[in-house]
Design a protein that fits this description.
Blueprint (H helix, E strand, L loop, with lengths): L1 E5 L2 H18 L4 E4 L5 H13 L9 E4 L1 E3 L10 H8 L11 E2 L8 H15 L4 E4 L21 E4 L2 H7 L12 E4 L2 H6 L2 E6 L5 H9 L17 E6 L7
Parallel strand pairs: 1-10, 2-3, 2-6, 3-5, 6-9, 9-10
Antiparallel strand pairs: 4-8, 7-8
The structure holds 2-amino-2-deoxy-6-O-phosphono-alpha-D-glucopyranose (GLP).
GO molecular function, one term: glucosamine-6-phosphate deaminase activity
Function: Catalyzes the reversible isomerization-deamination of glucosamine 6-phosphate (GlcN6P) to form fructose 6-phosphate (Fru6P) and ammonium ion.
Family: Belongs to the glucosamine/galactosamine-6-phosphate isomerase family. NagB subfamily.
Length: about 240
């Protein structure tokens, strides 16, 4: 595990953007696993900047997002689909038919989850999975519990997750109760993992994830088993390590 701490968000984001840029330059048809949340926004901004400077092209890349809320209307501003368009896809040359996100609008959510696994299987191993961590140790929307799932599945979001994400919605009631998330299988099989975490409020869970026992009660603790894990932190998140 390679853990790096940065003084500013800009430096952290620049490091992550360079990491991804270098990977895509070395392998133009790379398969990227992407994440949402507040932390990746700076990374995507800098990726767009690198694309505009002509330093990288995403024309042959395939991208798979970790997760999507279930039941939001088409074009809902808080869907991860809308997030990805706003922060990344509208600013780079990745063809949209190569940008996959679980279909949260599907009536048959489990069918949508199975479709997503088929697409993941066809694409083969992810070259890189970008990850954040939830306050309860979730990765994607793989929530803590008695068990974890390898495959894409429908998940009932924990109340703490809904509360944490309610800042993006008008009210807690509007936060979806369910989501579709990639399972831990493709994440753990990815060639490289890039975990990005910011803020003192994540320091305790990060310590549990990186230094605590490996347990389904903290899904991010599984990442300790990955042979190519890079962790990028700000000083707040690194406080308890
Ligand atoms: N489903 C996403 C996770 O994939 C992400 O890791 C988490 C924390 O993101 P952040 O702290 O960057 O906002 O937010 C959401 O719950």
């Amino acid at each position: 595990m390679n853990v790096l701490t940065f003084a500013t968000n800009e430096e952290l984001s620049a490091y992550a953007a360079d990491f991804i840029t270098d990977m895509v330059r070395a392998k133009p048809d790379a398969v990227l696993g992407l994440a949402t949340g507040e932390t990746p926004i700076g990374v995507y901004e800098q990726l767009v900047a690198r694309y505009r400077e002509g330093r990288v092209s995403f024309r042959q890349v395939k991208a798979f997002n970790l997760d999507e809320y279930a039941g939001l209307s088409q074009g809902h501003t808080q869907s991860y689909q809308a997030y990805m368009h706003k922060h990344l896809f509208s600013g780079i040359d990745l063809p949209l038919e190569q940008a996959y996100i679980p279909c949260g609008r599907a009536d048959d959510r489990w069918g949508a989850a199975r479709d997503y696994d088929r697409l993941l299987d066809e694409a083969g191993q992810l070259d890189l999975q970008l990850l954040g961590i939830g306050h309860n140790g979730h990765i994607g929307f793989n929530e803590p519990g008695e068990e974890l799932h390898a495959q894409t599945h429908v998940v009932r979001l924990k109340e703490e997750t809904r509360a944490a994400n309610s800042r993006y919605f008008e009210s807690l009631a509007e936060v979806p109760e369910y989501a579709i998330t990639m399972g831990v299988g493709p994440i753990m099989k990815a060639r490289q993992l890039l975990l990005i975490v910011r803020g003192e409020d994540k320091a305790a869970v990060l310590k549990k994830a990186l230094l605590g026992p490996i347990t389904t009660q903290c899904p991010a603790s599984l990442l300790q088993l990955h042979p190519q894990l890079t962790v990028l932190l700000d000083e707040g998140a690194a406080k308890e390590l």
